[in-house]
């Protein structure tokens, strides 16, 4: 299934079977379930989920990647992970990241 980021939405490119759509929703649900016990802000969870889905990465690797890319940071001296920028800017950066990856193939 081909998917791309369109603002804060995942847009499926081309035809999609109901089974594939159900699988996508299950993947999103599983990611959020994994993030329940992680100290992450709500907006950061959205970015992590999108990144994980679009880049096909697990949660731990997604968080590490997004910390390395500067989209996420730790809040002060706490373990709370938050966005390093406003949500709209983070979405824009995420779109750049996912587009550069798809252009590399």
Spell out the blueprint of helices and strands.
Layout: E1 2-6, E2 9-13, H1 18-35, H2 42-55, H3 59-68, E3 72-74, E4 81-83, H4 87-103
Antiparallel strand pairs: 1-2, 3-4
Question: Which descriptors would you attach to this protein?
Answer:
105 residues, alpha+beta, two-stranded antiparallel sheet, 4 helices, 56% helix
What is the structure about, briefly put?
With 105 residues, the protein is α+β, with helices and mostly antiparallel strands. Helix content is 56%, strand content 15%.
Overview of the molecule:
Strand 3 and strand 4 (81-83) form a beta hairpin. The protein is of the alpha+beta class. It is 56% helix and 15% strand. Helix 1 crosses helix 2. The chain has a two-stranded antiparallel sheet with strand order 1-2. The chain contains four helices and four strands; from the N terminus they run E-E-H-H-H-E-E-H. The radius of gyration is 14 Å and the shape is globular.
Largest sheet: 2 strands, antiparallel
User: Which range best describes the helical content: under 10%, 10-25%, 25-40%, 40-55%, 55-70% or over 70%?
Assistant: 55-70%
Gyration radius (Cα, Å) is: 14 Å
Q: Main sheet: which strands, in order across?
A: 1-2
Distance N terminus to C terminus?
A: 15 Å
The oligomeric state is single chain
Mean pLDDT: 87
What best-fitting shape do the alpha-carbon axes yield?
A: globular
Q: What is the number of E strands?
A: 4
Helix and strand content put the structural class at alpha+beta
**Treating each run of at least 4 consecutive H or I residues as one helix, how many helices?**
4
